[in-house]
Amino acid sequence: MNLTLKIWRQKGPQDKGRMVEYKVTDISEHMSFLEMMDVLNESLVAKDEEPIAFDHDCREGICGMCSLQINGEAHGPDRGITTCQLHMRMFKDGDTIYIEPFRANAFPVIKDLVVDRMSFERIQQAGGYISVNTSGNTQDANSIPISKHNADLSMDAASCIGCGACVASCKNSSAMLFVAAKVSQFALLPQGKIEAKDRVMNMVAQMDLEGFGNCTNTGACEVECPKGITLENIARLNREYLAATI
Ligand code: SF4
Ligand code: FES
Predict the structure, then answer these.
(1) How far is the CA of 86 from the centre of ligand 1 (A)?
(2) DSSP code at position 190
(3) Low-confidence residues in the chain, pLDDT < 50
(4) pLDDT for the residue numbered 140
(5) pLDDT confidence of residue 100
(6) What are the residues whose beta carbons fall under 8 Å from the beta carbon of 108, sequence distance 6 or more?
(7) What pTM value is reported for the model?
C-alpha cells in the first residue's frame, strides 16, 4: 500500500503545532499501525529529519501507553483494540490517514503525538488502592467468599489499562469511564469496602481538579474503549458517590 499521512507535529508544550504531510510506500497489510510509523521514522532518520515522537511500550494491548487519534477515532477504526493492535489491513491503498494526539486539556501535549497522562496517575493516587493487613495474621484471600457474578464484574472493571481513549472520545473530555472502572473494581469486592467512601469522594474530587468534564451520557467512551468497559460502571460510580455523600 502507498499512503498519505497527515501527522500532528509539535516541538514542545509551548509550540503551536501543525499537521505535516508524509508519504509512505510499500506498506504491508500485515504490519501493525505502529510498525508503519516505525517505517516512516526510519525514513525520516535516514534523511536526517526529526522522527515523530509517539508513545508505546508493550505493543500487546496491555500497558495503555499507545494513544493515537486516527482519522478522528481514539485507537483508530477497529473496535476493542489499542493502537498497537491496529493492523494496516484496516486501510486501503491510496488512503489518507490523519494521525493526532489524544486531545484534552488534562492531557497536555509533550511532543508530537505524546501527551502527558499524569492526571490519571494522580486520580489513582487519590484512592485507587486498598489497605492490606500485613501483620502476619492476614486472612487468606481465597477464604473470603465472593459471588462469581461480582468477581467477574470486578475483573471486567480491572481490565481498564488507563489509556485515556475514553477521555479523547468524549466531547466533554470526561474521565468518568476511567474513574468508574477504578472505583468499580474495588466497590464489588469486600476488600474494597473499608475505604469505599473516601475512595469515591477523593477520586472524583481529583478528577474535577484535573479539569476533566462531566459525563455527556452519549456513550462515545464505551464505543472507543479497547477493553470493553461499560457504562454500567459509570452508573455504579454515581451510586457509590451518592451513598458516600449521604
Ligand atoms: S476505561 Fe477504557 S478507554 Fe478509558 S482508560 Fe480505561 S481502558 Fe482506556
Ligand atoms: S503499546 Fe501497550 S497497549 Fe499499546
Answers:
(1) 16
(2) G
(3) none
(4) 83
(5) 98
(6) 13, 115, 116
(7) 0.95
Cell numbers found for residue 233: 460502571
- Tens digits of residue pLDDT in 33-54: 999 999 999 999 999 999 999 9
Ligand 2 touching residue 56 (CB < 6 A): yes
Residue 155, classed as helix, strand or coil, is: helix
The span from the CA of 196 to the CA of 159, in Å, is 20
Cell of residue 32, nine digits: 501493525
Q: How far is the CA of 196 from the centre of ligand 2 (A)?
A: 30
Q: Cα Rg for the chain, rounded, in angstroms?
A: 20
Query: Is 65 touching ligand 1 by the criterion CB < 6 Å?
Result: no
In this structure, are residues 23 and 3 in contact, taking their beta carbons and an 8 Å threshold?
Answer: yes
Domains and CATH numbers, the chain: 3-111 (3.10.20.30), 118-134+143-245 (1.10.1060.10)
Q: Which residue has the cell 492490606?
A: 132
Q: What 3-state class would DSSP assign to 136?
A: coil
User: What pLDDT, in 10s, does the model give residues 209-234?
Assistant: 999 999 999 999 999 999 999 999 99
Cα of 183 vs centre of ligand 2, distance in Å, is 23
According to DSSP, the β-strands at 18-24 and 3-9 are antiparallel
What is the spatial distance between Cα 203 and Cα 212, in angstroms, rounded to a whole number?
12
Residue nearest to atom 6 of ligand 1 (CA): 160
Q: Is the CB of 162 under 6 A from ligand 2?
A: no
Q: What pLDDT was estimated at residue 64? A: 97
